[in-house]
Amino acid sequence: MKSEIQILTEAACMREDILYFFSSEFNGLFAKNIIMGEVENLGSVPGEKYDQTQLYTNMLYWDSKLYLIPLRASNAVVIYDILGKEFNKIALDDRYDECDWKYQAAVIVSDKLFIFGVKIPEIICVDCKTNKVDYIKA
């Protein structure tokens, strides 16, 4: 008998036949082939607690990479390289390290990632080609 595990999801995005999603209950990134129904555990973000809830609130795809937007995680954008199967981070301004609810929404326009805060009064612009970070007063 095939067992099923349910994973509550906070952040997700689709790319072709693959649904990428991040658990809202623990530190785990997954990929599900929606045609075959197979789920792959891509790993946990290094430096984050395994049992932390609501780490990332949004996930976007650009150039074979997933961008994870922190809600309750460390103050950094996490980039998961799908081809290289590795996690990297872009540190954000440490003025907001202690903020419990960091960012809620994000969008990629061309090669720029714009991130909007929950309790943070700036719009963050990340250049996806260079990882350069700029801050725009809201």
What is the compact description of this entry?
The chain is mainly β and 138 residues long. The chain is built from no helices and 12 strands.
List the keywords.
138 residues; 4-stranded antiparallel β-sheet
Present the secondary structure layout.
Layout: E1 9-15, E2 18-23, E3 29-33, E4 39-43, E5 56-62, E6 65-70, E7 76-81, E8 86-91, E9 103-109, E10 112-117, E11 122-127, E12 133-137
Antiparallel strand pairs: 1-2, 2-3, 3-4, 5-6, 6-7, 7-8, 9-10, 10-11, 11-12
The backbone outline, from C-alpha atoms, is globular
Please give the share of residues in helix: under 10%
Query: β content, as a range?
Result: over 45%
Numbering strands along the chain, what is their spatial order in the largest sheet? Answer: 1-2-3-4
How far is the first residue's CA from the last residue's CA? 54 Å
Sheet/helix structural class: mainly beta
Radius of gyration: 15 Å
For this structure, the quaternary state is: single chain
Please tell me the overall pLDDT.
92
SSE order in H/E notation?
EEEEEEEEEEEE
Tally the helices.
0
Low-pLDDT windows of residues: none
Describe the structure.
- With 138 residues, the protein is an all-beta fold.
- It has strands at residues 9-15, 18-23, 29-33, 39-43, 56-62, 65-70, 76-81, 86-91, 103-109, 112-117, 122-127, 133-137.
